[in-house]
Write a structure and sequence with these properties.
- The chain is of the alpha+beta class.
- It has helices spanning 11-19, 29-38, 92-107, 113-122, 126-143; strands at residues 47-51, 62-71, 74-84, 145-146, 155-156.
- The protein has a single domain (4-156), classed as Zincin-like (2-Layer Sandwich).
- It has a three-stranded mixed sheet with strand order 1-3-2. Strands 4-5 form a two-stranded antiparallel sheet.
- A hairpin with a 2-residue loop joins strand 2 and strand 3.
- Helix 2 packs across helix 3 (92-107), helix 3 (92-107) crosses helix 4 (113-122) and helix 3 packs across helix 5 (126-143).
């Protein structure tokens, strides 16, 4: 007893359950809206999708990828944002934070001061949301219990 894993759910997780409500997101028009509002001159994003190959607890929450291909005499670039599928039924605030993070990579490649300033400009709650997402991932790693499931109930990951 006395360890975090023995006391789940912890008070912070209970607060998170009260503060955030699940919202399955199937349309990513909000991503293009964010891009249009804050990054008008950046390259367009062609695709936003959930990717089950991204393991959010150990690696990234999402990925921004750019593909280049030759089309006639021109070089065509396409940009994709992939979000870890563990966030499929998460609150929209979490998805917005991940989208803001990946969109910021269109302008700023490195995680430096300018990058986080842009993230905070796009979403003033960015740092708190990032903390809450990391807290949720820690809970998920320790207990395996998803707080938001597709049917509105809690479930356990494999």
């Amino acid at each position: 007893m006395g360890q975090f894993g023995d006391q789940l759910p912890c008070p912070a997780v209970n607060i998170m359950l009260l503060h955030y409500t699940p919202h399955p997101l199937h349309s990513f028009s909000s991503v293009s809206g964010l891009k249009g509002e804050y990054l008008r001159n950046a390259e367009p994003v062609d695709k936003v999708l959930f990717d089950s190959k991204i393991h959010a607890v150990k690696h990234a929450l999402g990925l921004h990828t750019a593909h280049s291909r030759v089309q006639g005499s021109r070089l065509k670039a396409s940009h994709e944002i992939r979000i870890a599928s563990v966030f499929k039924d998460s609150p929209p605030e979490f998805l917005r934070m991940i989208a803001v993070h990946e969109l910021a990579h269109l302008k700023e490649r490195q995680h430096d001061k300018a990058f986080y300033k842009l993230c905070s400009h796009m979403d003033p709650e960015y740092h708190q949301l990032e903390f809450d997402v990391r807290l949720y991932l820690t809970h998920l790693d320790l207990s395996g219990e998803r707080l938001w499931a597709g049917d509105g109930s809690r479930n356990t990951t494999e």
